[in-house]
Every structure is written in structure tokens, then in C-alpha cells.
Fold N-acetyltransferase.
Amino acid sequence: MFARTNRLTLRRFTPADAEQFAAYRSDQQVAHFQSWEPPLPLTEAQQTVERFAQGDPEAPGWFQYAVDLDGVLIGDLGLNLSQNLMQADLGFTLAAEYQGHGYASEAVRGLLQHLFVDRELHRVSAECDARNTASARLLERVGFTREGERPANSWFKGEWTDDLLYGLLRDTYLSRQPPTPAPSD
């Protein structure tokens, strides 16, 4: 386990996650603003989950965190750790039936707490398709600052799309956290 929130656990993927992973990654609504095309066959999901399970969250490159609600995989958070081990890019995916209940925000907040407090990263960045207003609102809700827009920057699923750029610095994140209560005697 990497992080625990009120309702969720951020953990490593296991082989038992493959079926649920294939289900939500096969959903056209979930895949709309993502880099993959649905459906995701179960055999491919099994291979992907196995690869995720072998990943090293401390090494540069992508690592996928499983988002678990009471033992059920409901989504994943991707983190692309830079070579300097102090910066990362964030992505998130949540099964459609769990969207709109605050789970994605809670999962991202839990990961940010882990990254900025436990691992002391300097910066976390994210970008999203400008049409993906739900993701943009989520990023702003959890404390990211919109740092820019790149018009017609990405050739995505057959069309040029605008990219919104977001960032959050460790110092900013820590300054917004409530003070830790002093221990009582």
C-alpha cells in the first residue's frame, strides 16, 4: 500500500485486477480523452496488469497505482517520474460508475500527500485535453494551478486538440495544508 484515504487505498496492481481493469478501460466514455482505443481484451489487460505489478514507483518512468475501494479496483493513477526523481507528471482514470462521487479527487489528494510529504517531490504536473472540463476542474479542485494552454497542440484520435497545462509545487501544497496539531501531554 502506498497511501490510504478515508475511502480508498492506493496500491500496487495484482493479477486479480485484470477483469475490472479490462472492463473500465473498454468503456468508450472512460476512454474518450485517454490515449487508448476500447475495447481492451482480457488477455491484453492481464499482460498490462502484470507489467504494472512489476513496476518500480521509485524509478524514472511511468508507474500505475491501483485505486481500490473496499477491495474493488475502481481506477488507476499514472505517475511519470522524471530522471531527477523530483518531478512527475500525473494522469488518472476512473471507472464510469464511480465518477461523480469524489473518488478521483480523493485518490489524487492521497497520491499528492504521498508524493509531497513522504517522498518530498518538488513538483507534479498534469495536462489534459481542453474539452475534458471534468479533469480540468478536478485538477483545480485539488490545488493545481493552470499554467498555460497550447492551442491545437496534440493530434489526438483524428483531430487537433488544445492542451491545458497544470502544475503544483511542493511548497504551495504544504502551505495549503492545515497545521498539524501539537501533541498533548
